[in-house]
Amino acid sequence: MRAYTGASVGLATPALMRLAESTHQVGAARAFLEKTWEDHRVHGVAKQYPTAETLTAWRTNQAYAVKMCIEAVDRLFSVAGASAWFDGNELQRLFRDSHMTGAHAYTDYDVCSQILGTLHHGHGTRSYDDLRHFSSKTAHGGVARVRLASQR
What local confidence, expressed as pLDDT, does residue 148 receive? Predict the structure, then answer.
């Protein structure tokens, strides 16, 4: 509800459009994850250990799906009004929790995109052992560093 006009923000056309876009984006993220999980299942049933490329794709796919969901929450939060910032508001909790999920070392898309970019650049195809030695962002916001096991 707008303070000065009394208009319902939730029923305004821009808010409804953002809701629709976020719905599509979360659906796309889910489909992307489900495709990745199906690949996990196929490898498991075949008792086939994934290659470094496959492991990298799985990790970065998951991080990208998290990134898409964060964008969807952010879009909704931007039109929710000032009351969304209050601790008791469910949207505030979703905003905070989604950003916390994206900040985890495994789902931090900045880290994952470096891993994928390094692989595509030809520096990460040795083994997954090499890929797991990428360092993530430091707790105080330092820059992520790429270090392959063979460079230690």
Answer: 38
Return all residues near 39 (Cβ < 8 A) that are at least 6 apart: 54, 58
Residues 69-114 have pLDDT tens digits of 999 999 999 988 888 889 899 999 999 999 999 999 899 999 999 9
- The CA-based angle 20-26-27, given to 5 degrees, is 90
Angle at 72 between CA 114 and CA 33, to 5 degrees: 60
When computed from its CA atoms, the radius of gyration of the chain, rounded to whole angstroms, is 20
DSSP letter at 147 equals -
Smallest CA-to-CA distance from 58 within 146, 131, 138, 123 is with 131
pLDDT at 7: 56
CA 135 to chain centroid, in Å, comes to 18
Burial pattern 19-57, b for ≥16 Cβ within 10 A else e, equals eeebeebbeebeeebeebeeeeeebeeeeeeeebebbbb
Orientation of helix 109-120 relative to helix 52-78, angle to 10°: 140
> Would you say the pTM of this structure is higher than 0.70?
yes
